[in-house]
Amino acid sequence: MFKTFISIAALVLFCLGNALADDYFSDQFIEKVSALRDQALLDTTAYDITESLTTEVGARLGGSENDAKAVAWAVAKFKELGFDKVYTEPVTFPRWVRGVETAEILSPYPHHIKITALGGSLATPKKGLKGEIIHFATIEDLEDADPTLIKGKITFISNRMQRAKNGSGYGKANGARYKAAFVTAQKGGIGAIIRSIGTDNNRDPHTGGMKSYDRNAETGEIRLYKKGEIVPAGAISNPDADLLVNMLKRNKPIIFKYTLGSHWDGQYTSQNVIGEITGREKPHEVVIIGGHLDSWDLGTGAIDDASGCAITMASAKLIKDSGIQPYRTIRVVLWANEEYGLSGARAYAKAHANKLEQHIIGAESDFGAAPIYAIASNVSDESLPIIAKMAELLAPLGIGYAGNNGRSGADISPLKKMGMATMGLYQDGSNYFDLHHTPDDTMDKIVAEEIAQNVAAWVVFVSLAAEYTGDFGFKLNK
Amino acid sequence: MFKTFISIAALVLFCLGNALADDYFSDQFIEKVSALRDQALLDTTAYDITESLTTEVGARLGGSENDAKAVAWAVAKFKELGFDKVYTEPVTFPRWVRGVETAEILSPYPHHIKITALGGSLATPKKGLKGEIIHFATIEDLEDADPTLIKGKITFISNRMQRAKNGSGYGKANGARYKAAFVTAQKGGIGAIIRSIGTDNNRDPHTGGMKSYDRNAETGEIRLYKKGEIVPAGAISNPDADLLVNMLKRNKPIIFKYTLGSHWDGQYTSQNVIGEITGREKPHEVVIIGGHLDSWDLGTGAIDDASGCAITMASAKLIKDSGIQPYRTIRVVLWANEEYGLSGARAYAKAHANKLEQHIIGAESDFGAAPIYAIASNVSDESLPIIAKMAELLAPLGIGYAGNNGRSGADISPLKKMGMATMGLYQDGSNYFDLHHTPDDTMDKIVAEEIAQNVAAWVVFVSLAAEYTGDFGFKLNK
């Protein structure tokens, strides 16, 4: 079904504009890009960058000690890679700290359970929170439930995320993670646990952000929720969720106890770290790419998102090293604290609000390091011939075109909302949610050939996008 | 290669004795067994038993609170299943307790590391053990190393276990786990960490027993090693071992710190739990089968070895329920504390030393719940026609014959050494060491159709073995 969609979109695209694109790029340039694409398939720069960040820094939760280490690492790495300009921009956000995490089933059958706090959760009492489990299959069931059933209890949502190449199972399951603590509190519950939003059967739960504050729509100011507005919330692994579901079939009350030390701890100022390859004609106009520098604290953030940082850094470096100096600047932004606030992306959009039109097109790599199988644009019809030329050069990598209504990364979304054109380079996410937000997100999961394929694709997108002298339709999404 | 071996062995076997076997069993009996085999493929008894033990008891380390719960569960389950006779026999052993487990790399690049104590390890100082890492690729390299290199350091062995259907990678890699603490102490080292003996890339390390005591060959008495004879020893996960190996390439000293609270804690008396289907002619002569009731404490012991208990219990129950009352007794033994002492097996062999000849043949199921692909015997030539008949009935299940020099389970080994004939029912172990001795050994890993295939195979072996009026060659191995 999806494949058919790609084929039709690709056909329309090629009919629309392929001949036109040849007006924009010299044969020599296209040959150079093609050669660079093929060279990138054998290049280890992105693999090496990922290994460097995960080994020399490791876990780097926004606001943690390693946040600052990651910023220092990124500045040094951009310089080492030969970027023309390297700088940082401040990003301030409320710091969240994890703390102790324990859980157990007390009765009818005692078991130790692995739990991890959801990002933004408040602490339980120090001696733990104890209560009877009330089970819901989905967040919608919890939302529909009579509060008298929930009062004084610990809710448990057991919905299981489904595996899909495009990661579509995530959005369907993720409401449980995002809303359980809030909805439970509204209905008088005392705690919330969820089945991890993940596709694996490993015993380590998946963390991830939850609704834990209000943001003032005008000022952007954050008001953190207090006890009572949300309950302490944690995720348990798929195997432990299965255990609970099996135990519930026995129709005996299940008493669960857990302790979370997670809490907010003042303000922290991190940095977006930015490296640029300066454009030859319009240095102030940029193609903005990147990944997020922060990670969750459980793994070393290899697939989320050292690899995205590495893929985009490597693609810009390879372009520069090949002798291409494009028409416009390539700006690689390594975003701060994506994971529990999108803080870097919001700060950037705010700081650059008066020069948004200089952002010609944007894209983020934030879905691991498995091969790219499609691109999808979000550009003006007039610029579709450029996209067609990209698609033509990407076809040898097994990459199709998925239409002009594409997704792009979370850190790109504030700029996209403000009108910037975007590109999505879709990675095969079949196994991504086995590892996402868990201790298993480590360097050994990166396959050298696969991450190199990503760089090859980004080299094509970035070099053509930065060389194109027209624009991709700013205010397209306004 | 292995397949060829099976084929030749099977050919020889069938030529040897197929016609002869027909003298031993009536057509009616063989038809009944065949029907029971096919019925077993659809039966959920073993799956349900595994679910019951892992849900209602869970982790059950020898000597822990759950050890006693597992014994009570097993007695009740045997009775519920309708066994003719249910009893227990005491098994006393030194109790080992795990305690706290933390680890970190302090420099050059700080990381939290997951560690788990090896069974039998002593504790570190309460504030942890800190030292420089010295790396060896294998236990042999450590054994060959100059002690002056090791003095005052923490040894790290990085050998990685290879995946294989028959689990042959385990024996090759496992020397590191068994001997590292002992060899390190002999050479003046202060601590030992090893790469987990496992084939997965999950972040949870694999525990498992290590050399931690001497056993008096005559009396069987145990003398536990003291501090200085062994060092505190733990396993780290494959991803963390990869991280250390990557870090070592940077040629900077690595300072590692870990804390283990593991220690010996007096004596404990558990029980072998035994259920019998009484033989019609020779009730005191037995076919002895079973699995071990204990498990490591990290998972719920689904594949190691709730499934082995369940497969053998279910096969005996199905035989009884079918109306077959065999010539000899079927004795199912759920062994105590296999994991860090083989305590139940040793106690049984000692307690039954004066009636060993009553044990006609023995087998254990202790390699998970994946399908059986071959059987291998260890019997007299005279009884090979019986094995041939078993193989004939097992062929429709995709099971071949792997010769008359077969492996059998660890709990069977003391009886085997004393001369008992044995049978091995070989399970596909390709994925077994992804889970073995980790928190991931949980019920969700059991596939209903696969565990039923095991029961179908055991039904054939057990019913023919117990009906056969000859013997399988006692003292064969003496």
Concise summary:
The structure is a homodimer of 478-residue chains. Chain A has 478 residues and is of the alpha/beta class.
Q: Provide the gyration radius of chain A in Å.
A: 23 Å
How many discrete domains of chain A? 2
Annotated CATH homologous superfamily of the largest domain in chain A: Zn peptidases
| Main pleated-sheet profile of chain A | 8 strands, mixed
Average pLDDT for all residues of chain A: 95
Shape of chain A: elongated
Helix content of chain A: 25-40%
General description of the model:
With 478 residues, chain A is of the alpha/beta class. Chain A contains 15 helices and 18 strands. Chain A has helices spanning 2-21, 27-40, 45-56, 65-80, 139-144, 147-150, 168-173, 175-186, 238-248, 302-321, 343-351, 384-394, 413-417, 432-435, 448-467, and strands spanning 85-97, 101-107, 111-113, 115-117, 129-136, 154-157, 191-195, 213-215, 222-224, 233-236, 255-260, 263-277, 282-292, 328-335, 359-362, 372-378, 400-401, 422-427. In chain A, α10 links the parallel β13 and β14 (328-335). In chain A, 57% of the residues are buried. At the A-B interface, α3 and α9 of A face α3 and α9 of B.
